[in-house]
Amino acid sequence: MAFRRKVAETPLTTQDVDAAVPPSLRVAGAYSWRILLVVALVGVVIFVIAQLKDIAVPFMIAILVAALLVPFVNFLVRHRWPKALAVALAMVATIAIVGGLIFVIVQQIRSGYPDLQKRSLVAYEDFKDFLATSPLQLDDAQIQAYIDQAFAAIQKDSQALLSGALSVGTTAGHVLAGLLLVLFATLFILIDGKGIWGWIVRLFPRRSRAALDGSGKAGWVTLTTFVKVQIFVAAVDAIGIGVGAWILGLVFGGFPLVIPIAIAVFLGSFIPVVGAVLTGAIAVFVALVYLGPFPALLMVGIVLLVQQVEGHILQPLVMGSAVKVHPLAVVFAVAAGSFLAGIPGALFAVPVIAVANVMVKYIAAGSWKTNPNPKPKDVLPDA
Description:
The chain is mostly helical and 383 residues long. 84% of the residues lie in helices and 0% in strands. The chain has helices spanning 14-20, 23-51, 53-78, 83-133, 140-157, 159-168, 172-201, 206-252, 258-268, 275-290, 293-323, 327-364, 367-370, 376-379. The model is unreliable at 164-169 (pLDDT under 50).
């Protein structure tokens, strides 16, 4: 009987398995699990912020306000003002300016609302008569049905936006608590912002502190520049649309509510891409009600012209140097922020993307090894 000699099989090692996998697949796998890890981390952060939105939103607003006020406080301190007095002046001035803007809006709307309501009803009746006598031959029931469909579509599409707005404060108590959190957070950032950041850095391992500290400073430079430039862009939008409405009033016999419209455009412009357009629509509506269809079309042209100037001149030349984020990325960031968190998401989308972009590039380039204290000239050109 013949016995066949059994040959022992050599076990495969990890190196043998890796060598059998194509290099392209190994690279794709390495990228895949890292991307999944980053996505999971971002998802956890978004979930935590969503659960703590009543705290997170006021704190992020406070960071934006502080980014505007810190250079002012530092300017006063450099000119031998006591820091406490400089911080107090910055806080009081901010409260006075914001309160004054809100007071002007409320006062102007209260005085002009009754006449606006009457004019709106007259314009609505004229519009129904026009539709009834036009080739469309629409009766009241058909017009009302179309209006109901339009309102239903608006409510459906704006549900996320409204829920985000309500998430900031559904009651007067929530609004008051949010305002107090904003004031206290802003005050402490102005008083001891460096100490707070130093405490956060010390929570991380010692080897990563230098990179984190430098990236945070680079992100802060970008954030302060963004806030100052955004105020400038918002002022241009408000002045452009407000002056356009005022000129139409001179030509066609008076344009009411010009000041509150300009202020609304200024505040709305802090939401990139859509803010100034939505608030500019208020000016178009007022022009339609008070002046008629042709002036309303001119007002539409003014709003679009201002937006074109902003989009093709201000954004590339001014805002581009502040955030270095492609306009397409801005559009998608605002859309994603609106979907996830409504108005707060649209407001914070661009600064968050801009700061994250600068911090990641700063760490990836190893700039923290040679430039631990970045200045605007060191960060913005390469951001």
